[in-house]
Each structure stands twice: as C-alpha cells, then as structure tokens.
Amino acid sequence: MKTESHKVGVIGCGYWGKNLIRNFSQLGVLSAVCEVSRTGRDLAAQIAAEAQVVDNVEKILDSKIQGVVIATPAETHFELAKQALEAGKDVFVEKPLALTYEQGARLVRLAREQRCILMVGHVLEYHPAIIRLQALIKTGELGKIQYIYSNRLSLGKIRREENILWSFAPHDIAIILRLTDTLPFQVIACGGSYLQPNIADVTVTNLLFNNGVRAHIYVSWLHPFKEQRLVVIGSRKMASFDDVSKRLILYDQRVDIKEGEPVPIKGDGEEVPFAPNEPLRLECQAFLEAIATRQPPLTDGYSGLQVLKVLQAAQSSLIMNGEPVTLPMEVYNEKGVLQYA
Known about the structure:
By secondary structure, the chain is an alpha/beta fold. It is built from nine helices and 19 strands.
C-alpha cells in the first residue's frame, strides 16, 4: 500500500488527545481523527477543520496515512497499537505503552518484525528543562548523582480505570531512568485507596540502583495543591525543576566531610535558562522525524518497555504492602538482541 509518509491520524479526542490533534494540525500533517463520542468528534472538527473525522478505527487503519497516534484510555493501548502495527503503520502511543510488561514486549517485537516505528508518549523527556538538566549531569556539573526524588501531586484528575501509579508515575519513572541511564534492581511501593476500592490514590515508590543511587516518586491526585517537582542531589551541586513555575534552579550546595564531621556547604541558587519550546510540540516533531528517517525516537518502544518493567514491579510491591520486588536481569541472545521475558 502506498503511504503518505508525512501524514498522521489520531485515535482519541479526549483530555490529552485534543492537544495532540492541535499540534499535528498546526504542523500541517493531520489527515484524520477517530473518536467514538459525538462530543469528541465535534471538538476534533473545531480544532482541526482540515482533518477527516471518523468514528471507526478501521477507517484510520485502512487509510494510506503512515503514522497512527493513540490517545485513548490505557487499557486500550495494547490492542490498538497491535492493530496499527499489524496494518504496517508507525505508531505513537500515549503512556503507558501497555498494562503489562508482556504486552509491551509483544508490541516491541511486532514493531521490529514489521519494521515500524514504535514511540511512547513520555512527553517530559522532550521538555527543554529536562534535556538541560540531563546535560548538566553528563558534563559532571552536579558531581556523582546520589539521590533523586520526584513529586507529582494535585487534586484530580481522578481516574476509574487505572490507579495513580499508572496514571502519574510513568512520567517520573521515564525521567529518572533517563537521568540515571540504568534500571533499578529493587523497587518498593506503598500507597492507599481512599476514594475507590482497590484503586490507589496515593503512592510512594522507592527505587534502588546498583551504583548506590536511590530515588523516590511520590504521586497523588488527592492533594490540596498542585506540585510537579524533580530534585537531583549530586556530590558537588543540587538541582530542582519546578514544572508549575517553569524554573530550573542549580544550587551550589553540598555536604563535605571535615575532620570526620559532615559540614553543609551552602551556596546561592542560580536559575538555569532553557528553550521555551512546548514539550508536546517537540514530541510530535520527534515522531515525524522518526517516520521520515526510519530511526528510533528518543522514547522508542524499548524505552517504554523499561518504564513498564518498573511500573509492574511497583504494582506488585504495592499489592504486597511494600514488599521489595527485585527486577530480573536482562537477557540477550547470541546476536545481541534483547530477549523479552
């Protein structure tokens, strides 16, 4: 089938899908939108008058467009991505990639077999502030990374089909894995369900890495104020990114040991500038670039699978009331290809 390599179709025009539709429309590449609800179809028509608006996924999959963007509830991600890949489409699926590691591994294998692009919507990995922070870490500005924590808190949006861990924490896990450039070997998660039975509203997840780095992720949709903050503690300096105030601060602070005693060294915080680009626009552009170049994007299927591995371990620990879960070692075959368990 001949394809229009720079055209995409979006499935879903809900809470987040409408933002993807806006961006792909403004980039001039949106061909069609699929939405089952009449309200969603009307909204899609307002946002992107140039796009065909349909109510059946098959109309997207049977079309000549090459890129399919999936912005539907998490429990539908696996099946829709699977159908799109089987149809030979490049796929950009919102986080999480799937609801189990096994499903995610099937999608990664299928994308490889079909020679299709598979991208996961970990939008904060495209945030200019996170990219700037990653550069500071790589150049040694912070020294040896010792501890990372991330808070993602607000009152709502409360979901019924997934808990707070699966709704909020994928962003934080993705960033921490990117900054540490490795997987943790142990995951511990605790939380509580207060509004709906067996759907956690608050969780705290602890990650322990082989190099001694520790991290914790605190997420809640039952919180009196909004906070989206990432803090990285290094041996030389410390950094804080506040996504609410849009500020990245580098602190010339550390703790030295003098005559056997820990001595805090306090310095001023310096605001670090970063590009004002919209992270979602950069993410959409990355998908288009991957389609054009056939090169994996930053947040490819494998990246999404790593996040799923940590999420699934955290969910297991949460169910066991905080029992530690050890992640299995990755196994490669004789050709150096990762074997997905």
